[in-house]
Design goal:
The protein is mostly helical. It has 2 helices and no strands. The model has no long low-confidence stretch (mean pLDDT 83).
Length: 46
Amino acid sequence: MVEKRRYHFNVGEVKSEIIELILRHKGVIKEPFIRRSLHEKYDGID
């Protein structure tokens, strides 16, 4: 059986990262790019 890792982020941590990511890029940013960036930074976030 595969053990699942659970980690609770600080309140607003992921939301603020999404907002910063959007503000860093000028123009349209798509959801898959945001998901990929969060996955890389937070090591496997769903």
